[in-house]
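Recall that a protein's primary structure is simply its ordered list of amino acids. Everything else, from secondary elements to tertiary packing, is in principle encoded there. The following example makes that idea concrete.
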Amino acid sequence: MTPEMQRELGRRTLALLDRKTTDMAEHLMEEPLAGYRSAEQFERERQLIFGRYPMFVGLSCDLPQPGSWFTFDATGTPILITRDSAGRVRALLNMCRHRGVRVVESGRGARARRFTCPFHAWSYDIEGALVGVTGPEGFTELRRAERGLVELPAEERYGMLFVAAHPEAGFTVDDHLGGLAEQFASFGFESWQSIAAAHPHPVRANWKVAWGTHLETYHFAYLHKATAGPLVYGNTSIADFYGDHALMTSTMRTVDRLRELPEEQWRPVDDGQINLNYRLFPNLSFSVVADRLEIFTIYPGETRHETVAWHHAYRRTAPAPEEADALDKEVRWACQTVVDNEDYAMAAQVGAAMRSPYTPETMVFGRNEPVMQHMALALRRALERS
């Protein structure tokens, strides 16, 4: 992010603190609870939103060289993601074209040349082409060129990897990011490195409930009063909108140091005084915290009352061997203490209420929760268009 953009965020943040307020929506909003309890809407969301929209699956470092691969199942569609011999990222339906068995078990690897189905040992190369059929006399009429693994849309851009779960869900990352593309390009994510293995957080609640815990800072002074609360000003957040997406900030209490410096020396994002929390529709919580990334991607679970949130953590530079274990433990401590025990524990309480025989017709999103409102309206529009 450019120095002038950082200075402008600093000016706006100090103004909010001086007025003891936050960026506001124009009106209060009522959100119907039917959208959280409806099995029909849940299936439409899985098929139309998570089946068609581009999904973030990692940074370039997650496929470090040709032959690298990992599986991705969060949308409900089994996907194999590879970097082919030419260095291009590909997404392939992880389903054998013979009898539909998963070709590759869940995991990741490097230097792969072929993937072999465990059922009848049909094999595919790194690009998904069918290169081996056992017992070929039984398949003399088979057109092998037409029986490779089904290719799905995938693009690597600005060091980020996006895929979609349906072969007809064409997209470009620039179109998807819209007005945020320039900001994402400025961070140089092509060279950032993972500091902890991606891991799941199961939540017993509708995915929109879990997603909502990432969309406002109103709760920080209360829910996080003994953990993150002493470090962050609650209910003090900039909210800017870019199509269906949003940029909201979290304000570290160290931001007051800006008052002691001339503006030309302000770098509040680089110095970790203001965190950039990009919220990309429909499910990506992408936070730039100084020289680190904290990422959660939120997916529907097996039922409308289940969620799986995947966490990724990265840093500008790779950790030295002697600090790698400590970093991994630090990430997991924050995930367990703040996210699991506080944010997602609250989501699970909401989930329990949503499963009860009776609920009110609506809940309320306040004017001080503009990103909550924005994401709810974006989902409504997406479902209406489909």
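The chain has a mean pLDDT of 96. The first strand starts at residue 29 and ends at 32.
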